[in-house]
Amino acid sequence: MTEYVELHARSAFSFLRAASLPEELAGAAAEMGFPAMALVDRDGLYGAPRFHFAAKKAGVRAHIGAEVTCTDGTVYPLLVRTRIGYRNLCHLITRMKLRAKKNEGAATREEIAEHAEGLVCLAGLDHDLPWLIDAFAPGDVYAEIQRHMDREEEARNQALVERARSLRVPLLATNGVCHATAAEREAFDVLTAVRHKTTLDVAGRLLAGNSERHLKAAVEMARLFADHPDAIANTAELSSRLEFILTELGYEFPKYPVPEGETMNSFLARRTDEGARRRYRPYHERARRQIERELALIGKLGLAGYFLIVWDLVEFCRNNGILAQGRGSAANSAVCYSLGITAVDPVGMDLLFERFLSEERGEWPDIDLDLPSGEQRERVIQYVYQRYGRRGAAMTANVITYRGRSAAREVGKVLGFPEDVLGRLAALARAWEWKDPQYTAERQFRDAGLDPANPRIRKFLELYLGVQDLPRHLGQHSGGMVICEGQLDSVVPLEPATMPGRVVVQWDKDDCADLGLVKVDLLGLGMMAVLEETLARIRESYHEEVDLAQLPPEDPETYSALQRADTIGMFQVESRAQQAVLPRMRPERFYDIVVQVGIIRPGPIVGKMVHPYLKRRQGREAAECLHPSLERVLRRTLGVPLFQEQLLRMAMIASGFTGGEAEDLRRAFSHKRSEAKMQEIEVRLRAGMERNGITGAVQDTIVQAIASFALYGFPESHAASFALLAYASAYLKTHYLAAFMAAMLNNQPMGFYHPSTLIKDAQRHGLKVKPVDVTVSEWNCTLEMPAMRLGLRYVRGLREEAGQAIARRRPFASIDDLVRRVPELRKDELTKLAAVGALNALEGAGRRGAMWESARAIQPVGPLLDTPAAQSRDSEGADPPLRPMTPEERLRADYLGTGVTIGRHPMAWRRAEMNERGASSAEELHRMRNGRPVRVGGAVIVRQRPGTAHGFVFLSLEDETGIANIIVTPDVFEQYRLTLVGAPFLFIEGALQNVDGVVSVKASHIEALPAWAAEPVSHDFR
After folding, report:
1. Looking at the predicted structure, is the pLDDT value of residue 879 above 90?
2. How many CA atoms lie within 13 A of 517 on its CB side?
3. Can you say whether the dihedral through the CA atoms of 838, 842, 844, 847 is positive or negative?
4. What is the pTM of this model?
5. Which string of DSSP letters, residue by residue, matches 18-83?
6. Are strands 503-508 and 494-496 parallel, antiparallel or unpaired?
7. Are 506 and 350 in contact (CB under 8 A)?
């Protein structure tokens, strides 16, 4: 039997140079009976981890390599033979990448020679064979021949064979694979056209000549190279020499430097003890025992350095006035709490440490730090680079893949479809969480006016589906940073991020985790930035000092706002779903907020825990536990399991599991769940309950609760961390509205609502909002107590450079003075400032007068260049010959120019029309009885179709009085789909639902209201 190994295959991780995922290539190789296969992506090891694990699962040995581009344009396919070779390839790729712009870079011949040890080069006719023979070790250069039914290629093969024979270089047959199957050649051509920014009609010889670059069986390759059997035999011989496997990376986590005479364990214990005495007053025995237990395990697992490195980051934040808070399972650790990493006392809340760390798991713990998004977070990231070196730390990557909208636009463009057609199609691409089985891609095409019966459109549809989920380019993860003892580029290639001063590894967070690379997540959280700025503004404008750690714990006004669901802008509790629960929940203390944060999650929803909990909360159902032994675990959630930690404790109590075994249970039901593992865990659960006398229906109920909920369960520790921020945001909004709102507007985009909605909500709460004004506005929104002033940042198209210059060079006597003193201002920027009223203080004739004066003032200076109108005004003081804007025109100008208005809401101008049609305002709905037929109109500010809502759609309609919540059933959505998806203003008829203070309208008839020239922006499909 012919033995052949494909040693030159690219995957879609060559980014537009191949059309199959690494998993597909590994699967095809296994089906063809290949013993091994090599993945050789262009200028990187992007797909190597996924290929390695997929091949291992399929029983195929995975070889790793890369095609390295040289400065002269030549491409060198390099295969890794040894661990030294792998390290050299990582160094080579890193060097060429870091000296160039993102997605660029090439190696010199000298660099290739310098890094040749442990690598094998596959040489072609365009390579300098004698030089390669000198550069690489004996036997590490092969002459690569490929056959794709191409006459020119065959002529090159013959020339290469002659040269190789004369230099005694062995031949190697490969197929230069770019797609797993022949059928994927069309997708490959599309990606090629995208890469070259052309269309298929004119791409010509840029495209593949045929479909031969697919993975071929050994028998077929042997037939193709019957005249060169040695080229086939050499593939197996070379494969046997490629000894490196990807799990042999040699990665080490950094050691933390400690003072002389200390070990990392002793230094950690000292720092923990100091922190515990500050946190626990008094430092009680229960906390002391828990900390001792945790430190013992940390020492046993050799993790002290990890905790110290995270502590060091938190200390940097504390010393530099940067808010930082650990979240996730780290909040289950009393050591993390004592070190100041987390803000939740796990001892007081009885949280399960094993959810964070256990001996059985054999994995590194995961600590996420929430930081203020923007400049403050960047300071922490740069501190990590400074501390561990530019090649000792890097961000994890994020692979950007083709999805509905990007696939529609890019595939359609290379097929030559008009831009307006592609815009319609992209707009209809499913963007919400719910996967509607009825709304197929074919239906989407039809709704966009494209008939799939047309052969050209049918092909468009096929290719659109064919590229889904293929990698498009490499981005960076939101906050994951990998750090390493020594040089990280010995483990994985590094490359520059788009943002200056950032470096990324070529793997995403899952690849890093699978291969044992440890990351610390430095996550930018918008609300942290808001809280930090709010405190600063309170200090400056209210002359008060507010400490988040010392907020009044049970403030009546704060809880009153939460109970009314008056929560727009508040962290984690502002969504429509949260607002629908808050009046029924009526939180009265901090733990109620913990539950509130955790209950609107997939776990409680899918597990059908929400309504039983709320009924018990309202006293309509008895708070009974599943079993008396579980009373301690479930008492504070009224007998209903809501959090992951509760499920793990249930397993520990009911079945006698250890903490580590309970965590294994959670992982068995994770997103990578194994049916065999699940069955094994269930057997152990039931056996343990049998031993504890729990049988029959009760046993079944407990197993069902654990099995159905563990997949989606939200950690109580995570909910508690978020609840701290939720309470802080609620307190600050309630008591310091102006400061809180300025901070919210200065840190957009974030949260659930557009700035236009935030402003209207603040105005309804009594805050006076002043317009943008070049004579007083800063770049950011500011306070003019008790009012808030909009910042220049809200003028669309105004560059920050120009806005900051305006703020620095005041005062201005006139528009002419402004133009003279701020030369950075462009003509279009000056016009935009005038249109939104920002120049009104300098021009008494209003916005149009300011626009007229701006047009004159920006003209070149000199008497010969003065316009007649300008001369007339200067000599006679005449007003500009333009009528003032009407209120409606000012409203349109506000939305076009800033996206917000501080004037009347758009629906206020339609109220007479709404009254004629019998429509109620959002405010009036709260005073109406349940079940009454109602009509309502408003601007759509949120559209949602959650994955757990069985196809229901939820809308938020805003008018001048507030927000009306709309429920749209799946059948009504199908009836009015295009209107619901596209119309900015809607008129809705339906039945009012007013139960327990939760008000919504169940829609039966929907129509679009005529759109204005500009309107509020909706946040859709969240």
Report:
1. no
2. 33
3. negative
4. 0.87
5. --S-HHHHHHHHHHTT-SEEEEEEETS-TTHHHHHHHHHHHT-EEEEEEEEEBTTS-EEEEEE-SH
6. antiparallel
7. no
